[in-house]
Design brief:
Layout: H1 12-24, H2 26-42, E1 46-51, H3 57-65, E2 69-75, H4 78-90, E3 97-101, E4 114-120, H5 129-139, E5 140-151, H6 157-182, H7 187-195, E6 203-209, E7 212-218
Parallel strand pairs: 1-2, 1-4, 2-3, 4-5
Antiparallel strand pairs: 5-7, 6-7
The structure holds S-adenosylmethionine (SAM).
Length: about 220
C-alpha cells in the first residue's frame, strides 16, 4: 500500500473526533457489530488481542456478549487508550477489557499468549503489515486465529447502492466518499499485503463482504 502521507498513530485531536463518530455513526456501529458477532462465534474461550483498538468499543462489546472472555486492546495513540480505559471503567468491565499503548510491531506480551487476534479499521494505517503480522504470529497460540477487518475501497456498484439504500444519502456519502477516501484498502492491496506475509501461518486468505475486507490467518 503506497501512500504519500501515512499517519500510523491517530493524533490526539483526531482520537476524540473518531471516538465520537464511531459511537454515533450507524455505518461504523454496524461494522463493529458484525465483527463482535463473528469473533464471539469463532472463539471457544480465552484471551483476545485487539490491535489498533482505538476507543475500545469492539473489545467492550465482545466482553459484554461473552463473560468468559478477556480482551486486551493495544493502540499507538495514548489518547485512544485513555478513552478506551474510561469506556471500560464506565461499563464496569475493566477486569476483562484492558488497554495498553503499544505498536503492532512490538507487542508487550510473551510468546503464544493469545487465543485470537483481531483488528478493525486499522490495517490501512499499518506501515509494515508483514512485520506486524510476524509479531502477531509470535503472540498467538498454535491453532489460534487472526481476523483483520478494514473498509474496502473498490466495491462493486451494487454494494454502494445497497449502502445508499440502507443508510440514506448523507451517511453513505460520509462512509463511501469521505471516510473511505483515506481509510480503506482495495482487494489488490490486501492480496499484495497477504503475499508478503512470511510468518508461518497454516492458512491465510481474504474475504470480501459488502464494504468490509477481512484478512484471516490460522497459526
Ligand atoms: C480508525 S482507528 C480504528 C479504531 C478501532 N479499531 C475501531 O474499529 O473503532 C485506527 C487505530 O489504529 C491505530 N494504529 C495504527 N497503526 C498502529 C500500530 N502500528 N500499532 C498500534 N495501533 C495502531 C491508530 O492509532 C488508531 O487508533
Amino acid at each position: 500500500m503506497k501512500k504519500l502521507i501515512r499517519i500510523e498513530g491517530i493524533p490526539n485531536f483526531a482520537a476524540s473526533i473518531y471516538s465520537f463518530i464511531a459511537r454515533k455513526n450507524p455505518c461504523i456501529k454496524d461494522i463493529h457489530k458484525e465483527v463482535v458477532d463473528e469473533v464471539s462465534l469463532n472463539i471457544y474461550s480465552g484471551r483476545i488481542l485487539d490491535v489498533g483498538t482505538g476507543p475500545g468499543y469492539v473489545p467492550i462489546e465482545i466482553v459484554k456478549k461473552r463473560n468468559d472472555l478477556k480482551v486486551t486492546g493495544v493502540d499507538l495513540s495514548s489518547k485512544m487508550v485513555k478513552i478506551a480505559v474510561k469506556a471500560a471503567r464506565k461499563a464496569r468491565l475493566s477486569s476483562r477489557a484492558d488497554f495498553k499503548v503499544a505498536n503492532a510491531g512490538n507487542l508487550p506480551f510473551e510468546n503464544e499468549y493469545f487465543d485470537f487476534v483481531i483488528s478493525t479499521l486499522s490495517f490501512h494505517h499499518w506501515s509494515k503489515p508483514a512485520e506486524y503480522l510476524k509479531e502477531i504470529h509470535r503472540v498467538l497460540k498454535k491453532g489460534g486465529k487472526v481476523y483483520i477487518y478494514d473498509l474496502r475501497r473498490d466495491t462493486p456498484k451494487e454494494v454502494d447502492s445497497e449502502v445508499r439504500k440502507k443508510y440514506g444519502w448523507f451517511l453513505s456519502f460520509l462512509l463511501l466518499k469521505i471516510i473511505r477516501a483515506h481509510s480503506s484498502i482495495t482487494v489488490k492491496e490486501a492480496e499484495e499485503a497477504l503475499s508478503r506475509v512470511d510468518a508461518d501461518f497454516s492458512k491465510k486468505g481474504i474475504e470480501s463482504r459488502g464494504v468490509v475486507i477481512k484478512l484471516y490467518f490460522i497459526k
